[in-house]
């Protein structure tokens, strides 16, 4: 199955400072800026576009339960995950299962932009957080 880079997620603490940096230094355009209080997300998210390439800025909204807060505590700020667009998430999940790669089932969700996503189990990716996603509403 073909996979293409969809976006990179970056764990940060100061949302406005980072939006300003991306806009004023990198020439990015702010596509969306929202807050998700969904369990397992609990983050403020800004989607930045630089000439068609996307970066998601992720700031924790709850320092106790947010996975972004946990990530920053364990690893510091910086690249949190790499997301790959797959043509069909259901088919990609079957392919992963056939190859013995586990996912984090509780991470399966559809975000406000209609992107279905799931994270692969970092134990099977040598610690790298990898997201698979598709956009079924846009096909």
UniProtKB/TrEMBL annotation:
Task: Please give the superkingdom of this protein's source.
Answer: Bacteria
Concerning its family, UniProt says: Belongs to the methylmalonyl-CoA epimerase family.
- VOC domain residues are 4-135
Q: Which PANTHER family match?
A: METHYLMALONYL-COA EPIMERASE, METHYLMALONYL-COA EPIMERASE, MITOCHONDRIAL
**What is the recorded name of this protein?**
Glyoxalase
> InterPro entries in the record, alphabetically?
Glyas_Bleomycin-R_OHBP_Dase, MeMalonyl-CoA_epimerase, MMCE/EMCE_epimerase, VOC_core
For molecular function, the Gene Ontology terms on record are:
metal ion binding; methylmalonyl-CoA epimerase activity
Pfam families cross-referenced by the UniProt entry: Glyoxalase_4
Task: State the Gene Ontology BP annotations.
Answer: L-methylmalonyl-CoA metabolic process
What keyword terms does UniProt attach to this protein?
A: Metal-binding
Organism expressing this protein natively: Pontibacillus yanchengensis Y32
